[in-house]
Amino acid sequence: MLDILIKNASELVTCKSAGPKTGRDLDALDVVKGGDLAIKDGRIVAIGHLNEDAKKIIDATEKAVLPGFVDCHTHLVFSGSREDEFALKTQGANYLEILKQGGGILSTVNRTREATPPQLLAAALARIRMASDYGTTTLEIKSGYGLDFQNELKMLAAVRCLHTNRRMESVPTFLGAHAVPQEFKDNREAYVREVLRMVEEFRRQSLAEYCDVFVEEGAFSAKEAETVLKGAKACGCRIKLHAGEFSDIGGVELGADLGATSIDHLDYISEEGMRLMAEKKIIGVLLPGVPFHLMTGHYAPARRIIDAGIPIALATDFNPGSCPTLSMQMIIALACRYMRLTAAEALNAATINAAYALDRGDRIGSLDVGKQADIIILNIPNHRQLPYWFGMNLVERVIKNGRIVK
Amino acid sequence: MLDILIKNASELVTCKSAGPKTGRDLDALDVVKGGDLAIKDGRIVAIGHLNEDAKKIIDATEKAVLPGFVDCHTHLVFSGSREDEFALKTQGANYLEILKQGGGILSTVNRTREATPPQLLAAALARIRMASDYGTTTLEIKSGYGLDFQNELKMLAAVRCLHTNRRMESVPTFLGAHAVPQEFKDNREAYVREVLRMVEEFRRQSLAEYCDVFVEEGAFSAKEAETVLKGAKACGCRIKLHAGEFSDIGGVELGADLGATSIDHLDYISEEGMRLMAEKKIIGVLLPGVPFHLMTGHYAPARRIIDAGIPIALATDFNPGSCPTLSMQMIIALACRYMRLTAAEALNAATINAAYALDRGDRIGSLDVGKQADIIILNIPNHRQLPYWFGMNLVERVIKNGRIVK
To answer: Taking Cα atoms as reference points, which of B334, B287, B296 lies closest to residue B92?
Structure first.
């Protein structure tokens, strides 16, 4: 007998694809109308018009059924919040100014260093619950608010504790190169060496799948990033980069050269950078919540990025400074309005392509027989309504790994 | 014994004021820290540090307690949705173009005319539930998708049915002058006469508190609005206007002259218009969800409007064409980012001033002893976090008229 049978969905939006979707293919969704979906032992076992028996039958009449969202770029583990900095921003202060004044990332570093492991974990669990409630079934989590061995370890250990959470699969990324901590501000080279020491140790303990570097003025140069990422690759880490969030200082070219899995932000990117990413089939992770929250109005040139042949993904970049939202629905709403994506493009970017941005495209990110049953049911009759109604949670049901979690 | 005692809120944000808040006063919030609030027989009976017994005690430790949101401008009763029109807009089509092609408002008119009263009511009730879930405890609802006697009556009758809903107080507004229907397109004068006939009849049946006119190119001229609104006043209606949504064609000056309760939109407004509104103490209802959804980037000049001394309110303008959100939290998030309001200004605008925009400032809109117990409890420790976390529902509890409805 089946475990779960979802009956009569007005749309089963499969998002299926043999690889990351690019170009016109990104705008194509494989939609089954009026279809059913069967789940057994945590997997999707059939899609179509089914008449089998099931322990649980979910009526999806007038509802759209989608793969769970894959949020492939978050900084979910941290302590504190930065609403006062946000208030300053609404009065005109900018992100790099706040960073230079010892605010920004470093203020969250201070709060996170002070937090005990149970405090960090409790805050993270509340956020996991919220993200799940909004339809995310897998999310990546970066360290980078510890910036020393002990505190980076504390963050990655918190992510490991989340592995047993039944609502969410968490993917750990080491981001020791998020900012140079105060104690190393006059000796950046020594901090880069410390980051190399950390990545080696965390890999040995299997605490990080990816190593990421924030390549930006005020953070790390492309040259420093190269040292870190080459060291990370040497000990078996896959790599990611933050590049082009506020300026273009060579992160994209470096990431292409080193074979990054994804390069994230791309609000600023050169034609040559686009050409290289397309050639190397590197996923471009776009994060429209950041220019929205920071009020820069400068969104990644998504249409040109798509036209260049780069497979794009969407993510929240959830963090207390530049994007305090966990809702992938909000990110999709922003991407359609301010990056001019179609609903189909945004959905593929938030599911199957995001799964490939975490090297999991063969297991999650689409409704496909044999894949893990990570599924959301939305209270709308078609996927085009997903970006249309905004600021509200349209997700009615969440199934993670074949279990109903909402 | 008390009915409900809310204990130990980290902030009781009272928003109390003897009249609509203007200028610097708009940025002042009366906040009680670590306080309690007592409810009996649907009313707030005490605020402070209380030790009375209650049938129900709610622990609000680390939570902010606010007056329920008053959404003073919605078009909540309609049939259908317009996601395909939205998709066109993301590809560059504009609102007035779509209107001229018989799309826009008139497409919703067709769907609403076809709908049966139970269908209309069922859709409205689902929306009321959503709005309530996001913290709205009172909302205004405009007719205007019927555009003939029978169908405007059907809409206003649906609003009357909502009066018994325990989650929400609904305030009915007649907006026969929303668009000229197809059957009158070559005889606008006759339609204006028809609107006058309708307002008289609906007033006689006490189906409308307010009469509103959409003053805009492609909708109604200031001259036509004058005819309608004078007729409405003559039969005892209070009046509102949509003015300056896409252009400034004299609606503000007319509204000031006729003593409107509120003039709504104001994305385009002259210096003289501002002076007149301030002088007459007319509430300016700002609707930032519209330029957000329509991607015009042209928000009302809120800072200048506040500096001019106009009391502002915030509302969703919930409707299927120009603002498909019911979340006042989203509207506040937009107002702080794109109109540069402070959190305090946005909160006063969404509560006490919005209550005055519905002539209910003496009964709702603030936490004040003697007032109706319309209260929301948010899962944040201070009100400054309300615009900061965005795209997520922070409302944990809703109390309407002294009853827990969430």
So the answer is: B296
**B70-356 fold:** TIM Barrel (3.20.20)
- Cβ atoms of residues B70 and B365 within 8 Å: yes
Print pLDDT tens along chain A (406 aa): 999 999 999 999 999 999 999 999 999 999 999 999 999 999 999 999 998 999 999 999 999 999 999 999 999 999 999 998 999 889 887 767 776 666 788 999 999 999 999 999 999 999 999 999 999 999 999 999 999 999 999 999 999 999 989 999 999 999 999 999 999 999 999 999 999 999 999 999 999 999 999 999 989 999 999 999 999 999 999 999 999 999 999 999 999 999 999 999 999 999 999 999 999 999 999 999 999 999 999 999 999 999 999 999 999 999 999 999 999 999 999 999 999 999 999 999 999 999 999 999 999 999 999 999 999 999 999 999 999 999 999 999 999 999 999 9
pTM of the complete model: 0.97
Count of alpha carbons within 13 Å of B219, Cβ hemisphere only?
29
Domain ranges of chain A: 2-67+366-404, 70-356
**Which residues are within 8 A (CB) of A272 and not within 5 positions of it... i.e. 6 or more apart?**
A253
Query: Residue B116: how many CB atoms within 10 A of its CB?
Result: 10
Distance from C-alpha of A83 to C-alpha of A89, rounded to nearest angstrom: 10
Residue B310 DSSP symbol: P
Map residue A264 onto helix, strand or coil. strand
- Residue A369: the pLDDT is 98
Q: How far is CA B55 from the centre of its chain?
A: 33
φ, ψ dihedrals at A376, nearest 5°: -125, 145
Judged by a CB distance cut-off of 8 A, whether residue A293 touches chain B is yes
Looking at residue B9, its pLDDT comes to 98
How deeply is A114 buried, as exposed, middle or buried, from its count of CB atoms within 10 A (0-12, 13-18, 19+)?
exposed
Cβ-based neighbours of B72, under 8 Å, separated by 6 or more: B139, B140, B171, B262, B285, B313, B315, B354, B355, B357, B358
Cα A265 to chain center, whole Å?
11
**What is the chain B residue with the closest CA to A293?**
B337
Q: Does A93 touch chain B (CB under 8 A)?
A: no
From chain B, the residues in CB contact with A82 under 8 A are 388
Q: What are the structure tokens assigned to A117, written together?
A: 């492991």
Q: Are B347 and B404 in contact (CB under 8 A)?
A: no
Cβ atoms of A297 and A276 within 8 Å: the answer is no
Check if B336 contacts A (Cβ < 8 Å): yes
B contacts of A134 (beta carbons < 8 Å): 392
Q: What is the mean pLDDT of residues B227-233?
A: 98
Nearest to B295 among A324, A325, A337 (CB): A337
Is there a common fold for B2-67+366-404 and B70-356? Answer: no
Task: Name residues whose C-beta falls within 8 Å of residue B390's C-beta, 6 or more positions apart in sequence.
Answer: A292, A293, A324, A325, A330, B329, B330, B333
Give Cβ neighbours of residue A403 (< 8 Å, ≥ 6 apart).
Answer: A42, A166
Is the ipTM above a cut-off of 0.95?
yes
Q: What angle do CA A315, A318, A319 make, to 5 degrees?
A: 145
Q: Which fold has domain A2-67+366-404?
A: Urease, subunit C; domain 1 (2.30.40)
Whose CA is closest to A349, among A329, A337, A332, A330? A332
B87 CB within 8 Å of a chain A CB? yes
